Automatic annotation (TrEMBL):
Domain Glycoside hydrolase family: start-end pairs: 698-797
Residue ranges of every copy of the DUF4982 domain listed in the record: 627-684
Protein keywords: Glycosidase, Hydrolase
Record flagged with keyword Hydrolase: yes
Organism listed in the record: Mucilaginibacter dorajii
Keyword hit for Hydrolase: yes
Family: Belongs to the glycosyl hydrolase 2 family.
Residue intervals of the Beta-mannosidase-like galactose-binding domain: 113-190
Residue ranges annotated for the Glycoside hydrolase family 2 immunoglobulin-like beta-sandwich domain, each copy included: 218-322
The protein's name: Beta-galactosidase GalA
Length: 946
């Protein structure tokens, strides 16, 4: 599976480079079009855990200034001193760094969340002037307030939607520094599960020509029109941030997966300044290779826009040719073939990393699900990352894409629109879900709200049905099921038949079911210790066993399929327990992605094209168990199974595809073996053996190398072995790791919902024989390796060398060393009499002193003028500082708190550099310029305190 997705990745990269090639060639003759457009902003952030109080606004002057654009105070202001803050690289989830705390919210995994601040500075080239500039934040948990250059530019009211911020009007260029400040309120909760805290998805700086395709501005989703004919009703939305109306030629082309041009369409529109406009281009094509879950073929759509024959913007999107249908009698069809949805619901977090999950760990999780036989994934209960959807497209996993906030008022409609616009080209997306389990589902109000939300979706995409995951209200006279295309059942399996009977023309799917409880690797329940066995006997009051849940679906053709709660365990919601349990018991896999019994159970039920046979439990029972009956289960899709203990046949059973097969076997140490047969031929075996004590450690990876791109992350399995090299299933040794070479440990886990060991650091205990350490590469430009040592008391250590391949790092917006910018300046009236540089400005004077800024020159109309800046806060923990006034033009004297600190005699622009002792006492800087009327004076660069 991995090989396949790696190959696909390489092909995709190759395809994109190939498709972009003509643009680079063209760009040699046109302006700037070859310049990269997308820069990661992930590096170089300053972070402060906890809130930073804003200064109290008091007094006339401050109140006046506070009410003005671009004058943010405190940590939101460019002139804030953040040099003591931690420097980090995004994505970041500070909740996963916190200790477990019994007083924190159980739902959020007993992690304190609170507030946090992030700041980052960047520069723009002077040639960027005139371009359209956008900041993108793909996900911040949970509420975010964003300032750029002291201007409040955005408030994001959802931890799962992206923010796209046009910074063109207030960006600074050349020597000037841009400052982003973000206050994150992670006390805000949108879920009853672990949501993490902080900027946990990618951040980008986008540079486009003034006439450009807007973000998520290409809609190119193939629709079938005849037996073999298809059309792509393309829609391209462009924007003009420039000054003049422009005539724009648009072109959309379809390419095969192997990059053969199939067809091209054109259109032409005028676009006025500061307007957005959509243009349509239809591409027709016949007999495409279809996208399916087994062969997820992807085509490429290249969109370019031109002005005067010069390309000004281009975008490559992927699409898939496939049809979907939900039928009220016979369920779901992909490409006209019936296919039961074998789905799981999941939250987005993983062991060790919280919600800041690297893409390669997302890929690892999807691979594990595919291996289990999953073909559908419900993003519970929020939109996923865009990288997640790209992976589902490539791997052939169908997605129920779910909106977070159920609300039809404008801000929430905006969130829903964003989701559909961003995700509507992905062939993997087959359902839009507008809500999960809403109390208003059985009411007129709920119905009216869903009608409107469904309408919002359909204005943007009519090719997928709208659903809502209902856990009640289905039989109320007015209810939400009347406003959706496919009714989602959360649990309520008792009502499948009645609802179908009463609503025979309504399509149904289970949107959530089962909610079974299991502790991975445990086969004895101990409720006092919060341990639940793996025999599929325990589930939530509202759920079913894994086996019954699937039988109910599999035997009802009118139900499209299921979405089991849940594919993986997740932090938080540790039902049926509370403290000290801190993560869930629902997963078919644990928090690390280690399979539980339920994983093999569904694998046996869902995989049809190869034999599956798995035997539980382990065979390491204590001496006093000898002779006592142990429950043995075989999870298999073969016809019949024979069971042997120490070579002796214990019996043969025909496999029951729903219930599976159970034996009660008097325990004897040794080897228990299951042999599977089809048509009287042996086609599969599995065995469990009694091992000796652990004597050594082993670590292994599911991939042979890691990419040295600074992003690739590798989950590494850690276990203990006996003298014969066999995995010891009940080992709990504490392992310490040392990593050398260009990589770092970013998280650790072991799948124990009751563990309070930190998820960061360099050590972890095995839980029922397993632990996971996740490493992430640093950037390297030649092939090398990293070495991971695993050491445990009394065990033979293990050393693993992992090749690191030279990587192609992302393009990053350069990190500039963090400086305190002195950017709030006032300019005195100009006078021919030498003014007192330390004069007090009257509190109520808003007019005789004018706000001014650095980065420009002013013409003198008299002999003298003072530039004045006051530090809002003393510098923290600083004795000495360095004040730098870059490119000061004109004769000038610099006064610090009334004392002359520097004298510049030349008129020519020059840097002024002043060493300040006792810098923490500095309150006020005044620059007295002197010249004659007509002279140009001012500070052309920045003023910085370092
Ligand atoms: C459902 C809910 C899920 C999860 C699950 C646990 O009602 O939609 O988010 O809480 O219960 O059984």
């Amino acid at each position: 599976m991995f090989k396949k997705s790696l190959l696909q990745y390489i092909l995709t990269m190759f395809a994109i480079l190939f498709l972009l090639k003509p643009f680079s060639i063209k760009a040699q003759t046109s302006s700037n079009t070859a310049l990269p457009k997308k820069f990661s902003l992930n590096k170089g952030w300053k972070f402060h855990l906890g809130d930073v109080e804003f200064p109290v606004v008091r007094g006339h002057y401050m109140s006046y200034a506070n009410a003005k654009a671009g004058t943010a105070w405190g940590a939101a202001a460019p002139d804030y001193d953040d040099h003591n803050w931690r420097t980090l690289t995004l994505p970041h989830d500070w909740a996963s760094e916190q200790p477990f705390d019994s007083t924190a919210n159980l739902s959020q995994g007993y992690r304190n969340r609170g507030f946090g601040w992030y700041r980052r500075q960047f520069k723009l080239d002077s040639t960027d002037r005139g371009k359209y500039l956008e900041l993108q934040f793909e996900g911040i948990a949970t509420y975010a307030t964003i300032w750029v250059n002291g201007l409040l530019v955005h408030r994001n009211w959802c931890g799962y939607t992206s923010s796209y911020i046009d910074i063109t009007p207030f960006a600074k260029y050349g020597d000037q520094v841009n400052t982003i400040a973000i206050r994150v309120d992670a006390n805000a909760q949108e879920g009853w599960w672990y949501e993490g805290a902080g900027i946990y998805r990618n951040t980008w700086l986008i540079k486009r020509e003034s006439v450009h395709i807007i973000t998520d501005g290409v809609y190119a989703n193939p629709v079938k029109t005849g037996a073999t004919t298809w059309t792509i009703p393309g829609e391209i939305t462009i924007e003009n941030s420039g000054n003049d109306t422009r005539q724009v030629d648009l072109e959309m082309s379809l390419y095969t997966p192997d990059l053969k041009l199939l067809t091209t369409g054109h259109s032409s529109i005028d676009i006025k300044p500061l307007c957005k406009k959509a243009s349509n281009i239809t591409l027709n094509y016949s007999d495409p290779r279809l996208w399916s879950v087994s062969i997820p073929t992807l085509y490429y759509v290249k969109t370019i826009i031109k002005i005067d024959s010069q390309i000004v913007d281009s975008l490559i999107t992927k699409c898939g040719f496939r049809t979907i249908k939900f039928d009220a009698d016979s369920g779901f069809y992909l490409n006209n073939q019936r296919l039961k949805l074998q789905g799981v619901c999941n939250h987005q977090d993983h062991a060790g990393v919280g919600v800041a999950v690297p893409d390669s760990i997302v890929a690892f999780r999807l691979r594990k699900l595919k291996e289990m036989g999953v073909n559908a994934y419900r993003c519970a209960h929020n939109p996923p990352s865009v990288q997640f959807l790209n992976l589902c497209d490539e791997m052939g996993i169908m997605v129920m894409d779910e909106n977070r906030n159920f609300n039809s008022s404008p801000e929430y409609v905006r969130q829903l629109q964003w989701m559909v616009r961003r995700d509507r080209n992905h062939p993997s997306v087959i359902l839009w879900s507008v809500f999960n389990e809403e109390p208003m589902q059985g009411s007129e109000i709920g119905y009216q709200m869903v009608r409107r939300m469904s309408h919002t979706v359909k204005e943007l995409d009519t090719t997928r049905p709208v659903t809502a995951a209902m856990n009640g209200g289905l039989f109320d006279p007015v209810n939400v099921s009347q406003a959706v295309d496919v009714v989602g059942f959360n649990y309520q399996s008792y009502a499948y038949d009645r609802f179908h009977k009463e609503n025979p023309t309504t399509a149904l799917t289970s949107s959530e079911d089962v909610s079974g409880f299991m502790t991975r690797g445990a086969f004895t329940t101990n409720k006092a210790k919060h341990i639940l066995d793996s025999y599929d006997t325990q589930y939530a009051m509202w759920g079913t066993s894994q086996r019954k849940g699937w039988k109910l679906i599999a035997e009802r053709p009118f139900i499209a399929g299921n979405f089991i709660w849940s594919g993986f365990d997740y932090h938080g919601e540790p039902s049926p327990f509370g403290w000290p349990s801190a993560s869930s018991f629902f997963g078919l896999m644990d928090l690390c992605g280690f399979p539980k019994m339920a994983y093999y159970l569904h694998q046996a039920q869902w995989i049809k094209d190869k034999p599956v046979l798995h035997l539980i439990p382990h065979w390491n029972w204590p001496a006093d168990s000898i002779g006592k009956k142990i429950k043995v289960m075989v999870l298999s899709n073969v016809e019949s199974v024979k069971l042997y203990l120490n070579g002796q046949l214990l019996g043969e059973q025909k496999v029951d595809p729903y219930e599976m097969n159970t034996w009660m076997i008097p325990y004897q140490p040794g080897t228990l073996k299951a042999v599977g047969f089809a048509k009287n031929k042996q086609i599969a075996t599995d065995l469990v053996a009694t091992t000796g004590d652990a004597v050594s450690v082993r670590i292994s990876t599911d991939r042979l190398f890691i990419n040295g791109d600074g992003l690739d992350a590798l989950p590494i399995t850690v276990e203990a072995l006996d003298t014969k090299g066999r995995h010891v299933p009940n080992a709990s040794d504490h392992i310490k790791f040392t990593l050398t070479g260009p990589a770092r440990i970013i998280g650790l886990g072991n799948g124990d919902p009751n563990s309070h060991e930190p998820e960061k650091g360099d050590q972890r205990s095995l839980f029922n024989g397993l632990a996971q350490v996740i490493i992430q590469s640093n950037e390297v430009n030649k092939d090398t390796q990293v070495t991971l040592h695993a050491i445990a008391k009394g065990l033979k250590p293990f050393v693993l060398k992992i090749p690191v391949k030279a990587g192609r790092p992302l393009l990053y917006a350069p990190v500039i060393s963090s400086t305190l910018l002195i950017d709030k300046w006032l300019m005195s009236p100009m006078t021919d009499q030498k003014p007192d540089p330390d004069q007090v400005i009257a509190e109520n004077d808003m007019n005789s002193w004018q706000p001014t800024s650095t980065g420009k020159l002013t013409t003198l109309t008299a002999q003298y003028v003072i530039f004045r800046s006051s530090l809002s806060k003393p510098l923290a923990n600083v004795e000495k500082a360095h004040l730098l006034l870059k490119k000061a033009a004109g004769k000038a004297k610099v006064y610090i708190d009334g004392h002359l600190a520097y004298q510049k005699i030349d008129q020519e622009p020059a840097d002024i550099s002043i060493e300040i002792e006792q810098a923490q006492l500095v309150k006020q800087i005044s620059v007295l310029f002197e010249g004659k009327a007509g002279d140009r004076i001012g500070i052309m660069g920045t003023v910085e305190l370092k």
